[in-house]
Specification:
The chain is α+β, with helices and mostly antiparallel strands. The protein has helices at about 5-20, 55-75, 80-85, and strands spanning about 25-30, 35-40, 85-94. A three-stranded mixed sheet has the order 1-2-3. The radius of gyration is 14 Å and the shape is elongated.
Length: about 90
């Protein structure tokens, strides 16, 4: 993938995330993968301290956000195929 395509993909994904109210995303390319990193607030119904991967509220929020970001990124970039079109999404709780 050439540099111009990478820049176009990055801008498209950032614009999509911004339009959905996700302003703190980091989008980058690494070895053919499109990596998207987003920090989100803990769910209001979560009381675990610190984050616990067994907390249903946290894992449900993380999972739904990750799936949504990957589906939206696939749509705007046209990527498809194995490994979600080589798109990775990292969700961090603030």
């Amino acid at each position: 993938m050439d540099k111009a395509t990478k820049i176009k993909e990055t801008r498209s994904v950032k614009a999509m995330l911004k339009s959905e109210g996700i302003l703190n995303a980091r989008v980058r390319h690494e070895g053919g993968w499109l990596n998207i990193e987003v920090a989100i607030d803990k769910p209001s119904n979560c009381f675990c301290k610190p984050y616990d991967n067994r907390c249903t509220a946290c894992t449900d929020t993380w999972s739904s956000m990750r799936n949504h970001i990957i589906a939206s990124a696939k749509q705007v970039t046209g990527r498809d195929g194995s490994y979600n079109g080589y798109i990775q999404s990292y969700i961090y709780l603030k």
